[in-house]
Amino acid sequence: MSPQDVQELCLALLGDQKAAPDLEGAEAWQDDSRPFGLILTFTTGARLWVAITVAGVAGTPPGTDEGPTAPTAAAAEAAPLPHLYDQNGAIALQNAEEYLAAVLGSSDPQDGSASSASGSGIAKVYTYSGAGAGRSFGIGIVFRTGARAYLPFAHNCGPGQRPNVKPYEHLSNPIPGPRKN
What we know:
The chain is an alpha+beta fold. The chain is 13% helix and 26% strand.
């Protein structure tokens, strides 16, 4: 599973308005320090930059294992999505993790992780905060091949704002909601 495979899968799943109604858009993110990632725009205008790193199966060169197949329509009709916004339209990073994990898979209420619908190649999706990763926020994906993808949240900003300059260290929590006049 290559980083590009993961990026394409995430763009397909998160860019589906029916599966992710609180996301206005999902686009590829690439810069000098990060060849693969995502920029997610929420319906409030808040944005979240997500990095993508992968680890292949032992003995399998990166990018050579079988990539995901296109998601099915049935995958979009999984369990209800978790609550994303607070009363002011702000997004707590833990809520963003849970929401994105639910979109990438179907919710598993016993342990807060998710396991995906068939077709995507995803065996399990988990949140960094739910896995006890300390102050880090993001999502982990385990594929049926044994490959893993790590999607840490790198930057974020509220509507009409610029993202933080130093990745990972200065994330706004919560991400501000729309400004009230």
